[in-house]
Write a structure and sequence with these properties.
It is a single chain. By secondary structure, this protein is α/β, with parallel strands linked by helices. The longest helix has 23 residues, at 168-190. It has one domain (7-293): 3-Layer(aba) Sandwich (Rossmann fold), CATH 3.40.50.720. It has an eight-stranded mixed beta sheet, sandwiched between helices. Helix 3 (73-86) runs parallel beside helix 4 (113-129), helix 4 packs parallel to helix 5 and helix 5 crosses helix 9. It has nine helices and eight strands. The two termini are 31 Å apart.
């Protein structure tokens, strides 16, 4: 595979429909913009519709906006119902939106904010839209994780919502580890259907608004180092775009920057932490996620 994969490598996307969450800024904006420029009909799933429309106005091509608040399962269900009414098929679902290092907060449904937004909201959305994807050959679900899935990361089944103690770094790591476990388990369940694939990606260290809640102790060193260790949102979006569009990409793969320590660079295949591949934990997380969201996927258990 090329070491210099860029948006120029994206095949034509004419006739394809892409739904991108968190697409009004940062990585999501760059992802949606690139897909639209290559001919896809792109739906920006955003919490703030006004900002979403402003973002759409800065893109070329067929770009529309859908209200979607991943911190509310009611909003996720409403958005999924609206997308069912608007779209007869979906080729790409890009689970990009996320929060990072929040002070202790909960979603509308009482979930810890990072786990609830980054994992449970996307889990529910994917389950509710999957019937629009399964009949479509070559359709893909791409979920954006992070190198943070390795940092103090575990699935804390005894305290998933961090009610007894709270670490904003640990909670973020749990949510990003959950993104990967969800991807791998979803691919396992999709494998007998032969149409839709599940992949994951991470942006390395990109200069986006996501880091606005970085703890104070880390903020100053990161500010000093930023010019050396960060890349633009456009570069950070490339692993997601490769996972979504590269004809050679396969279900269950994980893409990230190809530079040293996966901090920046052109996208390539990478591997995630050993913990992320634990099948029993993936399956337990899936069952808990179904219970918490009330969303059951239209898939039979495989293997």
């Amino acid at each position: 595979m090329s070491d210099k994969w860029t948006t120029a490598n994206i095949p034509g996307q004419q006739g394809r429909v892409a739904v991108v969450t968190g697409a009004n800024t940062g990585l999501g904006f760059e992802t949606a913009k690139a897909l639209a420029e290559r001919g896809a009909s792109v739906v920006l799933g955003v919490r703030d519709v006004a900002k979403g429309k402003q973002a759409a106005a800065r893109m070329s091509g067929d770009v529309t906006v859908q209200a979607l608040d991943l911190t509310s399962l009611d909003s996720v269900r409403t958005a999924a119902a609206a997308l069912h009414d608007r779209l007869d098929h979906i080729d790409l679902l890009i689970n990009n939106a996320g929060v990072m290092y929040n002070p202790k907060q909960t979603t509308h449904d009482g979930f810890e904010m990072q786990f609830g937004t980054n994992h449970l909201g996307h889990f529910a959305l994917t389950g509710l839209l999957l019937d629009r994807m399964l009949p479509v050959p070559g359709s893909r679900v791409v979920t954006v994780s992070s190198t943070g899935h390795r940092i103090r990361a575990d699935i804390h089944f005894d305290d998933l919502q961090w009610e007894h103690s709270y670490s904003r770094v640990g909670a973020y790591g749990q949510s990003k580890l959950a993104n990967l476990m969800f991807t791998y388990e979803l691919q396992r369940r999709l494998s007998t259907h032969g149409t839709t694939a599940a992949l994951a990606a991470h942006p390395g260290v990109s200069s986006t608004e996501l880091a606005r809640n970085t703890p104070a102790a880390l903020r100053l060193p990161i500010t000093w180092l930023a010019p050396l260790i960060t890349q633009t949102p456009a570069m950070g979006a490339l692993p997601t775009l490769r996972a979504a569009t590269d004809p050679a990409a396969l279900g269950g793969q994980y893409y990230g920057p190809g530079g040293r320590n996966e901090i920046k660079g052109h996208p390539r295949l990478v591997t995630s932490s050993p913990a992320s591949y634990e099948v029993a934990v993936q399956q337990r997380l899936w069952a808990v996620s179904e219970e918490l969201t009330g969303v059951t996927f239209p898939l039979a258990l495989v293997g």
